[in-house]
Write a structure and sequence with these properties.
This protein is mainly β. It has 1 helix and 6 strands; from the N terminus they run ββββαββ. The protein has one domain (about 5-105): Nucleic acid-binding proteins (OB fold (Dihydrolipoamide Acetyltransferase, E2P)). It has a 5-stranded mixed beta barrel with strand order 1-3-4-6-5.
């Protein structure tokens, strides 16, 4: 049995970015921050922030994304995907979360909303 599933709870680092591929396939990019805290050997608190690039495919998310602003508290579920691209004759490799669902956890809203799952296009380009 194999499983590729990730769940992240964090805060949006900047407003959601709506984009489209060269073939006009809509997608949205989220920059999600998660934080880890621990005590070091000296008993001092340390922390580290990790940034995660989350990709949401489809037009259904566009209206939902318009309401998601920097600082929003979100739960993101999806799968890890890595891809390579070349820029200025240098190869780059990145890991992204291909997002399948998003829950808004903002207390101010007093509600939780889910994004409907939309299939990822089969011809996903390297952006």
């Amino acid at each position: 049995m194999f499983q590729n599933r990730v769940t992240l709870i964090g805060f949006l680092g900047k407003d959601a970015e709506k984009r489209a591929t060269k073939n006009d396939i809509p997608y949205t990019v989220l920059s999600l921050a998660t934080k880890d805290s621990w005590k070091d050997r000296a008993g001092e608190w340390q922390s580290r922030t990790e940034w995660h690039r989350c990709i949401v495919w489809g037009a259904k998310f566009a209206a939902f994304a318009a309401d998601i602003k920097k600082g929003a508290h979100l739960q993101v579920e999806g799968e890890l995907r890595s891809r390579e691209y070349e820029k200025d004759a240098v190869k780059h490799r990145i890991v992204e979360i291909r997002t399948k669902s998003i829950l808004k956890l903002d207390r101010a809203k007093q509600q939780t909303e889910a994004v409907p799952q939309e299939a990822e296009p089969s011809d996903v380009p390297p952006f």
